[in-house]
Amino acid sequence: MSEDTHATELTRRRMLQGAAAALTVATGTVVIGLAGPGGGAATAADPGASDSFDEVFQGRRIQGRPAAGGSHHHGGGAGTGYEVRIDGDELHMMRNADGTWISVVNHYQTFATPRALARAAVNDLQGATLVPVATA
After folding, report:
1. What is the CB neighbour count within 10 angstroms for residue 73?
2. Could you write out the DSSP letters of every residue in 23-44?
3. Torsion, Cα of 82, 84, 85, 89 (10° steps)
4. Cα separation of 81 and 79, whole Å?
5. What pTM was computed for the model?
6. CA distance 81 to 86
7. If we measure between CA atoms, which residue out of 115, 121, 112 comes closest to residue 91?
8. How do residues 69-95 score in pLDDT, each as one tens digit?
9. CA nearest 92: which of 49, 127, 134?
């Protein structure tokens, strides 16, 4: 693959990730509005306050924890109340109405837990750096 082709692919990938993030935020606003406030005991799809992780997966450090400031924290996605980081960079994610999770890296596949979501994102990134999502 030539240098120009590689650069073009990265630009397309970033553009698609940005479009996915915008769609995720727009969709998340609707889903959160319909789902209403959550509550209840923690389950596999509903991480509780003690459901944190910090591990190295395929050479990348993945971390997840309940977001500081409750469910309206900016990190992790609109109203998720949970944040995930890959090598210190925030992975924007969204909780679906059915309790599953999606991210801007792969918004076509759902995951039962933020840890599973983080691991799948590492697989999908294939060594690429997580690019910050513009939220203007």
Report:
1. 17
2. HHHHHHHHHHHHH----S--BT
3. -70
4. 6
5. 0.58
6. 17
7. 121
8. 654 333 454 455 899 999 999 999 999
9. 134
